């Protein structure tokens, strides 16, 4: 019998796809006891009860069947109404909105519809871990546009223009950003939109964190002049309504694009689970007050986290959205991975090394503040000890910073106990 | 006192977690700590903040307590209505909370004691004998599911993975 080389059975594109940058770290966390995790990219709130209750009720009423490939019309209408109300962009719920299995599926569909082999996709970096692999799987070539703390992890129109080649097909944006928490204002996005129009680029705009914007108002890419037609707007329910496990997202855009995405969707996913769609409908109908309360909580923790890093002596970019902080750890003399691993081993605090999000994330770590105040406080006590051991001096607190003498004493007190 | 946004947020934070220090609240709301302290002091002075309580599930530490809801009907008195009799009742330390109700009875009195015997004794000898008390109906609490907005046996622990992208 001939020996089978199983590796050869796997499509080389998939075989050569690098594993997620945090897989090794994930195993390490799993075998460590007493860990406080700030590495989780999902809300620490359970889905609000009224949404869960609507789902239970839908099951009781026997909603257990397929829906249209596009998704429940009522849900699509609610999505269209929400986009019109929030951003003043109008989509026809019948042929311009597709309900997907999370934004992840919508992203995959958009890539597969838009890209031909060799087409280039411009991606700001650091970037969410699945953007580049999704591009590669669709036959495209990811082209990264590095950003840094000095420019607020934002890209500029000039940078986009300079990255364009004859093969550039798509610009992929994610603001508020995972992992940095960066946001872009309307003016900056409008300039980028002009470049997109001038160069006939399609824009995939992942706006999953749009409701978690703390400074200013979120700008919806398709609300900008000339962008409604050339934007594939991706959004979902995971972050704003604490519904990560339900897997409901949507794509909105030109009927040609959305129709093509629906073709793939109907042969693969067929439709999103009706149970989850019923829950999403309830979220859109009655979930706004609960969502606003959650956002308020995140915002308070955001202040606490940024201040804590500053006090610790680590430079931290002030995130304007999402629920991540992205402090720079080069002052400790450690790489991102070394910092994360040593912190986990010595103080049992888990966070994600910045290089998991691409080369320009090196020197940073991603800290999720979707955690309780108690967990955050304890994690920062431990981190302060660790950073101090690495030789980083805590910030000298002097007037007129917004922190009291007693807190300064408290922080110093923590440092003295090491 | 006008309830502005900052004051409302301070109250919500403290209602949620009375342990929070003014320094922490100041950072969370991005305001000066002296301002937080000033607002809290003013709220305390005006009795808007009455107390900083801890909600304890005594069963978890093996402490047996008996709680009862007593429906009390009373005869209102000239000028003071229900208030004079009410005060005589709520002054007893055994009374944990009390409210004037509309409906078939007047006062809802929540009692706490070490045993059913102790609660029964209090009702029959102290409460029912007060002049103006027409009748009492005692309901013993079998189980507390939720108190002051807090679910006592909340099974909603953090089930998230330790790391996710």
TrEMBL record, chain A:
Protein name, as recorded: Aminotransferase
Entry GO MF terms: pyridoxal phosphate binding; transaminase activity
PANTHER family assigned: ASPARTATE AMINOTRANSFERASE, ASPARTATE AMINOTRANSFERASE-RELATED
Superkingdom of origin organism: Bacteria
One Pfam assignment: Aminotran_1_2
Cofactor(s) in the UniProt record: pyridoxal 5'-phosphate
PROSITE patterns assigned to the protein according to its UniProt record, in alphabetical order: AA_TRANSFER_CLASS_1 (PS00105)
Keywords, in A-Z order: Aminotransferase, Pyridoxal phosphate, Transferase
GO biological process: amino acid metabolic process
Aminotransferase class I/classII large domain span: 34-375
Enzyme Commission code(s) on record: 2.6.1.-
Family: Belongs to the class-I pyridoxal-phosphate-dependent aminotransferase family.
């Amino acid at each position: 019998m001939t020996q089978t080389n199983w590796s050869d059975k796997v499509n080389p594109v998939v075989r050569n796809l690098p594993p997620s940058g945090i897989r090794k770290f994930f195993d390490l966390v799993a075998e460590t006891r007493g860990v406080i995790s700030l590495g989780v990219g999902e809300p620490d709130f359970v889905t609000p009860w009224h949404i869960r209750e609507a789902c239970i009720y839908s099951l009781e009423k026997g909603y257990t069947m397929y829906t249209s490939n596009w998704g429940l019309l009522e849900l699509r209408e609610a999505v269209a109404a929400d986009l019109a109300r929030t951003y003043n962009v109008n989509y026809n719920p019948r042929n311009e909105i597709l309900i997907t299995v999370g934004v992840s599926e919508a992203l995959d569909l958009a890539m597969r519809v838009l890209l031909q082999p060799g087409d280039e996709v411009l991606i700001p970096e650091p970037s969410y871990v699945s953007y580049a692999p999704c591009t590669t799987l669709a036959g495209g070539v990811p082209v990264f546009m590095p950003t840094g703390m000095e420019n607020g992890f934002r890209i500029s129109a000039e940078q986009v223009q300079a990255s364009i080649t004859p093969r550039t097909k798509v610009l992929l944006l994610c603001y508020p950003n995972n992992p940095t928490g960066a946001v872009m204002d309307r003016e900056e996005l409008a300039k980028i939109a002009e470049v997109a129009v001038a160069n006939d680029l399609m824009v995939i705009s992942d706006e999953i964190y749009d409701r978690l914007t703390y400074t200013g108002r979120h700008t919806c890419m398709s609300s900008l002049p000339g962008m409604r037609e050339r934007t594939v707007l991706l959004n979902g329910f995971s972050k704003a309504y604490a519904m990560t496990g339900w897997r409901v997202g949507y794509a909105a855009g030109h009927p040609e694009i959305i129709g093509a995405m629906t073709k793939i969707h109907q042969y693969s996913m067929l439709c999103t689970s009706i149970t989850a769609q019923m829950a999403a409908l309830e979220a859109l109908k009655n979930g706004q007050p609960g969502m606003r309360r959650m956002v308020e909580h995140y915002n308070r923790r955001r202040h606490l986290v940024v201040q804590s890093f500053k006090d610790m002596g680590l430079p931290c970019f002030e995130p304007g959205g999402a629920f991540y902080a992205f402090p720079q750890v080069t002052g400790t003399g450690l790489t991102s991975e070394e910092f994360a691993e040593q912190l986990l081993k010595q103080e049992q605090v888990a966070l994600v090394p910045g290089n998991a999000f691409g080369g320009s994330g090196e020197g940073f770590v991603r800290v999720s503040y979707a955690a309780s105040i108690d967990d955050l406080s304890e994690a920062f006590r431990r981190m302060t000890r660790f950073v101090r051991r690495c030789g980083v001096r805590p910030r000298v607190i002097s007037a007129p910073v917004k922190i009291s003498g007693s807190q300064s004493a408290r922080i110093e007190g923590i440092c003295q106990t090491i | 006192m006008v309830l502005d946004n900052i004051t409302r947020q301070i109250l919500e934070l403290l209602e949620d977690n009375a342990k929070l220090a003014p320094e922490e609240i100041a950072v969370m709301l991005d305001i000066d700590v002296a301002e937080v302290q000033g607002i809290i002091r003013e709220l305390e002075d005006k009795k808007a903040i009455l107390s900083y309580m801890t909600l304890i599930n005594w069963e978890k530490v093996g402490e047996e307590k008996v709680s009862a809801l007593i429906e009390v009907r009373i005869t209102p008195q000239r000028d003071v209505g229900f208030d004079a009799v009410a005060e005589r009742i709520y002054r007893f330390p055994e009374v944990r909370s009390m409210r004037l109700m509309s409906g078939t009875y007047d006062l809802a009195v929540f009692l706490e004691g070490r045993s059913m015997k102790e609660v029964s004794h209090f009702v029959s000898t102290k409460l029912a004998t007060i002049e103006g008390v027409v009748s009492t109906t005692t309901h013993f609490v079998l189980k507390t599911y939720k108190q002051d907005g807090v679910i006592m046996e909340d099974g909603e622990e953090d089930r998230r993975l330790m790391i996710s992208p």
